[in-house]
Task: inverse folding
């Protein structure tokens, strides 16, 4: 089975800190995604990448950046964390297309205080 | 503009009865639809999918129905079990398009013993 691993399950950071969320997948998937999940708002796409060093903005990229230097790793960066970035962050990966869509990691619950 | 809508934020059913979760979409280019299940503190997991060339797909207790003319799909769970209590996300994609899944906001299903 494809595994998508997010480096931290829970993080607490201070306002203004630079935060790195790491995601690694082990099945040579081309596509990788970062979402955040908030109550009542569902899954919102922050950024995605369809190849190494390629990235595209999703629906809510403000305050975030990403890095994909290797195919298996996709990092989400909060340049200066703010309290409204407290959320569940979910990484996902996929082949260019499969009938099963994306494989998600277990998520990182980030709290910014 | 929400392209995939799950209008019921929550649903409560008795164990053993049928659960019906609904999803509407507006983009007529969508041709593949998926349902994901998400437990708290975990990532979403793929549940079942359907292509637009079909109107029904069944997998054990789970059946997805697609009504293309109404741009509506539904997930039926029969019989419902307490372990089915989770948030269910509907997702849609245009396979000839961006290949990005568009998610609904989710429906929280509670199955009472």
Result:
């Amino acid at each position: 089975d494809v595994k998508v691993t997010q480096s931290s399950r829970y993080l607490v950071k201070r306002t203004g800190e630079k935060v790195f969320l790491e995601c690694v997948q082990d099945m040579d998937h081309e596509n990788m995604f970062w979402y955040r999940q908030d109550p009542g708002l569902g899954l919102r796409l922050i950024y995605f990448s369809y190849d190494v060093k390629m990235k595209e903005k999703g629906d809510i990229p403000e305050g975030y950046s990403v890095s994909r230097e290797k195919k298996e790793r996709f990092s989400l960066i909060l340049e200066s964390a703010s309290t409204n970035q407290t959320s569940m962050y979910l990484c996902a990966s996929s082949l260019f297309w499969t009938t099963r869509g994306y494989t998600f990691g277990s998520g990182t619950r980030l709290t910014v205080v | 503009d929400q392209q995939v809508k799950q209008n019921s934020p929550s649903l409560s059913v008795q164990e053993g009865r049928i659960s019906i979760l609904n999803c509407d979409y507006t983009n007529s280019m969508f041709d593949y639809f998926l349902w994901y299940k998400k437990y708290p503190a975990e990532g979403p997991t793929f549940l079942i999918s359907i292509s637009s060339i079909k109107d029904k797909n069944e997998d054990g207790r789970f059946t997805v129905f697609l009504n293309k003319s109404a741009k509506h799909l539904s997930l039926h769970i029969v019989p419902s079990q307490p372990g089915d209590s989770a948030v269910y996300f509907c997702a849609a994609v245009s396979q000839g398009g961006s290949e990005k899944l568009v998610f609904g906001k989710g429906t929280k299903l509670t199955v009472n013993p």
